[in-house]
Amino acid sequence: MHLEFDSPSSPLFLNQFETGRILQYDIRIGLGETDISGRLRFDALARIAQDIAGADLEDSGFDNEGVWILRRSGLRINSDVIYGSRLRVSTFCSGIGRSWASRRTVVQNGEAIVAEVASLWIQTDSATRAPKSLTENFMLTYGKSSNGRKVSTRLSAKALDEIDARQMEWSFRFCDFDLIGHVNNVSYLYPLESALSSKYQQDLINARRNLDIVIEYRDGINYGSGYEVKVARDNDLNLDFYSDGRLGATIRTVDRSHIS
Predict the structure, then answer these.
(1) Which pLDDT does position 16 carry in this prediction?
(2) Which of 58, 115, 122, 151 would be 63's cystine partner, CB 3.0–4.6 Å?
(3) 204 three-state secondary structure
């Protein structure tokens, strides 16, 4: 499993990027972000990161230069986040490539980092959807916080072996599809949260705190296509998403409590 930093246990702390551009704002965790116990869900964390990424591009004036497609996202909840919590969200560019850039989103309660998202986005032409090179202005705006770090679009997850996988009963709703006509990036986490609740039940709070989640997006699932969700027989938290027979996305999990 690969995030845009060296390893999931080596976070890039916010104070390393104080000389570059950082967008910050305050949020309150509401009913739409929590489960039945009032705790923050992974899909809600992904939505927070997605929303502030869009806000950052709009604020910097780069929201009309192309369409940014999410290639990879790593999520971690470090500590319990409950309904009503008032938190500070920060996002910054943490690496740059030819037509892509990585960003880090950090959620803080005071000085404590309670959740993190590391993501890689590819800038594409709005008409052709082909990768579009980053401009000099983009480099001037976002380059300083990236600190010269280069990132790759290479994906690491391989499809689950047919023998080691079973089909998961899951249906995406009409509202799970976005304006591009794909299942929204956040919606892939709904079946994962369902599997988490089934597997851990009363211990769900600790389970979220111990898991690293990595989603890798390929072509995704298109509206109107035939799709299926497959799950590993030995780990029902590892999922493959197929669209018309092609691998569209993967979710892989690592339990940090088992890492020495």
Answers:
(1) 53
(2) 58
(3) helix
Exposure of 43 in the CB half-sphere (CA atoms within 13 A): 18
Domains and CATH numbers, the chain: 1-154 (3.10.129.10), 157-260 (3.10.129.10)
d(CA 7, CA 154): 16
Q: Which tokens belong to 22?
A: 């950082």
Which residues, listed in sequence order, are joined to residue 82 by a DSSP beta bridge? 39
Token pair in block for residue 163: 């023998």
H or E element, residue 33: none
Angle at 237 between CA 200 and CA 259, to 5 degrees: 80
Burial of 257 (0-12, 13-18, 19+ CB in 10 A): exposed
195-218: per-residue pLDDT in tens? 998 888 777 777 788 888 999 999
Predicted structure pTM score: 0.91
Beta strands in 47-179 (DSSP E): 67-77, 86-96, 100-109, 112-124, 165-168
- Give residues with Cβ within 8 angstroms of 212, minimum separation 6: 1, 3, 8, 74, 75, 76, 253, 254, 256
For 111, which DSSP code? T
